[in-house]
Amino acid sequence: MRLFTFHLAPVRHALALSVCLAIALLTSACGTSSAAEPDPVLRVGAIPDQDPEVLQRLNDKLTRHLAAELDVKVEYVPVTDYTAAVTAFRVGDLDLVWFGGLTGVQAQLQVPDAEPIAQRDIDAVFRSVFIANKASGVEPFDDTAGLRALAGHTFTFGSETSTSGRLMPQFFLAEAGLALTDFRGEAGFSGSHDSTVTLVESASYDAGVLNEQVWEDRLADGSVDLEKVQEVWRTPTYHDYHWVARPDVDERFGDGFTDRIRDTLLALDPANREDSEILELFGATRFIPTEASNYQDIEKIGREVGLVR
Length: 309
Known about the structure:
Helix content is about 45%, strand content about 15%. By secondary structure, it is an alpha/beta fold. The chain folds into 2 domains: about 40-125 and about 240-305, D-Maltodextrin-Binding Protein, domain 2, CATH 3.40.190; about 125-235, Periplasmic binding protein-like II (D-Maltodextrin-Binding Protein, domain 2), CATH 3.40.190.10.
């Protein structure tokens, strides 16, 4: 009987090559799937400048609207403070953020090609409001020089990196010739505009400063005790809050997606009931286009007071 001899080495080699090729193709396919990110989520954030419940309600409405109009998943991601908002934007944990003027500048400096895309109509002519406890003896005044009346009094800003609650007020104080050391004790930082009102109203501080929109909202809802606290001065105008998008948004969601976000915000119509609810929560009549050049003065002042490096 004739015996047949099989040479197994070539068979094993061919089989090994086939397995390796299959693994390589599978790995490549998995890598392609991950890179393509077939179901990306647009992560939206905002500086925590006022009551967390107000921010949550505002951003819940907005994210639902963006999801419907852009046909993508949208998630609102709350942050603990202003610095956390900038950091989350820098590392890519947030794609679209509602920044103040200063934090927007900080974010753009840390993320090259990040793009300011929209601001509220009121943000082109924004102002800060100085308030005082009536028992402090500080009376209303008409111009920047009147800020000197705050010397010798306790005083609180809002957040340390707030444009309207710290940066621009400190700029106007300096214009009046008032240094932070002219206050009685160290200047405070309340953390939010709402908290500033509460602290001045309770006489924890003689005076403080907050953004105009929050002050107007608190007056409108009757939550300010005008027997205890009063407005003493409003600053000249400056550019403030704005939306900033990361430069990789188009890469993740498709060409032109940043423009689609901008168009969706600009299209919010006060004549439409659902749109008007969003605009009202933002304290705006409309969103309008904006650009980085609008915040050059903010950057300059930020460098002067050491908040931009």
